[in-house]
Design goal:
Layout lengths: L1 H21 L5 E4 L2 E4 L9 H45 L7 H15 L22 E6 L5 H10 L9 E5 L4 H6 L4 E3 L8 H16 L5 E6 L3 E2 L1 H8 L9 E3 L7 E4 L7 E4 L8 E4 H11 L3 H9 L3 H12 L4 E3 L23 E2 L2 E3 L2 E3 L15 H8 L9
Parallel strand pairs: 3-4, 3-6, 4-5, 8-12
Antiparallel strand pairs: 1-2, 6-11, 7-13, 8-11, 9-10, 14-15
Helix pairs in contact: 1-2, 2-3, 6-9, 9-10
Length: about 400
Amino acid sequence: MFVYIRDHFEFVRAIHDFKSLFGDGPYCEVQDGEQVKGLNPYLKMSGKLRRLLQTFFVAFLAVYTTLLAYQTLSRAGPFNNVISESSKLSNVDYRYLSEDQVGSVVTVSERKLFTTNMVTSATATIRPPTTTLDDVFISVKTTKYYHKSRLNLILKTWFQLAKKQTWFFTDTDDPEFQKRTDGHMINTNCSSSHNRKALCCKMSVEFDTFINSDKKWFCHFDDDNYVNVPRLVRFLGDYNSREDWYLGKPSIQAPLEIISRDKTTQKVKFWFATGGAGFCLSRALALKMVPIASGGKFIGTGEKIRLPDDVTMGYIIEHLLKKPLTVVDQFHSHLEPMKFIRKELLHDQISFSYSRNKDEWNVVKVEGLDVKHDPYRFLSLHCHLFPHYSFCPR
């Protein structure tokens, strides 16, 4: 703007000098500080030509003034663009963008903002996209020996909260439970034994089935787990499935140490989430596992380290992919004393389990149905969490 004013006054002064060539009248000259009629000593021309030149300079003045104004606004243009782009960026909610999307926004802004020698700083909290039940793939590992005793209990309780999202992986065809699960029972054709190869075989099928789905989260549980489905979904909502997440709870107090069976015999340490409590993997992490875990490769890795499925999972993620386990205390296995989970905290837990130690049951301590009808306490737990079910005491 200052440049515009300076240029404008210089032009006005030039026009004033030009007027002095013509005077205020058709014929005039200055004598003793006064204008008198007569011929201008600096220029002799006809009145018609002089009027033509005056018209030309008036038009030129208008054009020149317009150009000066346009140039002034053009100088301010980049600054206005920066403000505009900054406003656009400030309206972008980074909390709902993936790393790639955030990167693309920053890349575009760099080209438009940083070339103006201006530095724009902002803080943004990245929040994961909204997680719904349909984003979760829940797998339950079982065997034909436990269909009647364990699956019956699951189908009556928490399965009712996630019928379309829960799949059962077993080792036989069972028309009855195939119907009761609405076709969500998969025969893995793996052995029904409990050895590491059979366990890794089922886990391999679970993993591949998830990869072939469109789900964002893979959550594995055993057939002796109770899953608090709404709590699981809320919990996963705190994490971004586009990032690498290995969520679970170890059953040991220190990382597992094994001897590597590669060419160099060296000790390897890693954590693993116990399958007895359940664990979840984000899709981003699962996709990174595909080259070394899908298509039966998971079984081969388990055989290589000679350890069961949940340990093999930790070996692949923590040791091979260098992705850490995030410990989640709300997952619980039968290896923990269930009775120590306080009643007021039950709603906040994700999974529970049970076991029998000699003559004593390791079960959740919760009031409800008679112990004879509910020895595992899953029915009573379900009624405590969701009291509207018909079998719950009134």
